[in-house]
Design goal:
It holds the Pfam family Pyrid_ox_like. The protein is of the alpha+beta class. The chain is built from 4 helices and 7 strands, in the order H-E-E-E-E-E-H-H-E-H-E. It has a single domain, classed as Electron Transport, Fmn-binding Protein, Chain A (Pnp Oxidase, Chain A, Roll), CATH 2.30.110. Strand 1 (20-25) and strand 2 form a beta hairpin.
Length: 159
Amino acid sequence: MADTHEITQTLWKKMADSPFLMVGLADGSSHSEPLTAQLDKDLVDTLFFFVGKDNRLIGGGKVMAQFVSKGHDFFACIAGTIAQDNDRAMIDKLWNKQVEAWFPEGKEDPNLALLRLKIDNAELWETDISLSGRLKMLVGGTITADENGSHAVVDTTAA
């Protein structure tokens, strides 16, 4: 089993490789929606999302975000607070060609909004099943805790 530091490092590596999350208000008033996270290595426990001003999350509040890695070997459930944060310096820092494709008028698009998700806590699972665990899966054996990967509940995702 990986330690907390290792598993949080893995989270950020996996999100850098595939930054797609399902994000929804935690009050149960609406469904989650897919968003592309913009990562800033200088800010701990923070995700950013470029959205349209008509997005259901624009009013902010408590959210839950779910992440599944590209290889389906890492999972995260992230709780936090989301708010609009149209800081021009941050928009400039995070702007890229993928974002530009959604906002034809660029950084001056009147529909552009930047959301900041401040992570309060997260639950992380890494399903790196050991060789003996994989063999047991093939023959119907019972996988023990030390064979099934890592799990952590963290108050910070600082790597």
